[in-house]
Specification:
Elements lengths: L3 E6 L5 E6 L6 E7 L13 H8 L9 H10 L3 E6 L4 E7 L4 H11 L6 H18 L3 H13 L13 H6 L2 H11 L5 E7 L3 H12 L21 E5 L5 E9 L7 H12 L5 H7 L6 E8 L4 E9 L4 H13 L7 H19 L2 H15 L5 H9 L3 H10 L6 E7 L6
Helix pairs in contact: 3-8, 9-15, 10-11, 12-14
Length: 411
């Protein structure tokens, strides 16, 4: 029996969607809230991610232990994540436990936000920020994004900063939650062997009292580009190079060509950067990727190398990005299309991956595209399509940053 798509909107605006597969051996459920770092006021930077943590600290009737033990008893794999534009809470289980997972997920979506939990978790968030400060790529990426987006909230750090987290108050978090964790700003996505009608009745019981707030987002495309960024740190012993360039948005049909173009330049193997930098031995890491957003998108081009090779690697990155289509044949494109289609198809065999794709797609577009249609669009990309998207969105970085070793401080 083929997979079928179902969609229903509750009276309060909560959208429930599903890809139902009666032959699947598992089921997956996830709440997707259309809120993330770009929706935060600068003084509240990091509140979305902080809230993600607080969801697991308990409700008025459930403790943190109740939630954790509840998912364990159901044998579920559950987790959450926060990005620039959405926050997701999900669980993957055997079909007979899908209703139990949905019950726990829905209840934890209305947390108590106790002051004691808030104070404790603030320390956890600060430790997480400190941990990422030890990741050279992440340090460079966050700093370059801030500069690249010229003060736009797309440049916000998902974790926030030491200053914003230390200054954040519990009541400000509650106000943010009340405004953005509303029924009409949330999607419940299901996939696998699920009873859709039953799930909708359950969602009505569990979520029917959620408020509607009309939460909005400014999705206009921001100005991008910046002066070169040069960071130094005496704790690193490699050179890290990162470039950002404007790319199609999530809702732009050219996103399929953009994704293949980025893979052509910097996929993990058999790409232009792989052959120019990895196989030649002048860099140990080299990649490019396409990252679509709401209203805009970006390419990033990255490499790490010995500091003595930094200038040479920067030149190669720029040159390969500028001439990525030179010499590219139909056979090269067919290889990329086949590899991409394989990855999409393999993911489509797992209910959890289908649920994630479904939830993200609806959160961004408010519409459904079947997996088979997306595969057709990937396979339909031509060399002319690559040229068209390259002309509109050149891969040459408009923002470029480096992180290199600093001279040890003299004591």
């Amino acid at each position: 029996m083929p997979v079928s798509f179902e969609q229903r909107t509750l009276d309060n605006g909560l959208t429930v969607i599903a890809e139902v597969d009666p032959e699947a051996d598992s089921s997956a459920s996830g709440f997707f809230v259309r809120t993330g770092a770009r929706d935060e006021q600068p003084a509240l930077m990091g509140v979305s991610h902080f809230l993600e943590h607080m969801m697991f600290k308990g409700t008025d009737t459930l403790s943190a232990e109740d939630i954790n033990e509840g998912f364990d008893r159901l044998g579920a794999r559950n987790n959450a994540y926060t990005s620039t534009e959405m926050t997701c809470f999900y669980a993957h289980s055997l079909p007979e436990h899908q209703a139990g997972c949905l019950d726990l997920l829905a209840k934890m979506m209305r947390p108590a936000l106790r002051q004691t939990d808030f104070d404790t978790e603030k320390g956890v968030i600060l430790e997480e920020i400190a941990m990422y400060k030890d990741n050279p790529f992440w340090v460079l990426y966050e700093a370059l994004c801030e500069q690249h987006y010229r003060g736009h909230t797309l440049g916000h750090r998902v974790l926030g900063t030491d200053d914003t987290i230390k200054a954040l108050e519990r009541d400000a978090m509650q106000a943010y939650f009340d405004a953005r964790y509303s029924a009409d700003n949330t999607v419940l996505a299901l996939a696998g062997r699920v009873d859709f009608d039953q799930a909708c009745r359950q969602a009505e019981t569990l979520c029917g009292s959620w408020n509607t707030t009309g939460a909005e987002r400014n999705s206009s495309e921001p100005e991008t580009g910046s002066m070169p960024l040069r960071l130094t740190d005496e704790r690193v012993n490699r050179a890290y190079l990162l470039g950002l360039a404007r790319a199609p948005s999530y809702g732009d049909e050219r996103r399929y060509a953009a994704s293949l173009l980025a893979k052509l330049l910097g996929d993990s193997d058999n790409s232009r950067l792989h052959w120019a930098l990895i196989e030649t031995g002048i860099a140990e890491e080299a990649q490019a990727a396409y990252d679509p957003h709401d209203g805009t998108g970006s390419y990033f081009i990255y490499a790490s190398t010995d500091p003595e090779n930094a200038d040479d690697v920067a030149e190669v990155l720029t040159n390969e990005a500028q001439r990525v289509l030179e010499g590219t044949t139909d056979a090269d494109l067919e290889r990329l299309r086949a590899k991409t289609a394989t990855g999409v198809t393999v993911g489509g065999e797992r209910p959890n991956d289908r649920m994630q794709r479904l939830g993200r797609q609806w959160t961004y577009l408010g519409a459904y595209t079947p997996l088979e249609v997306e595969l057709e669009r990937i396979r339909a990309v031509t060399l002319d399509d690559l040229s068209t998207v390259f002309e509109a969105f050149p891969l040459a970085p408009s923002s470029f940053g480096t992180l290199t070793p600093a001279e040890p401080s003299q004591s």
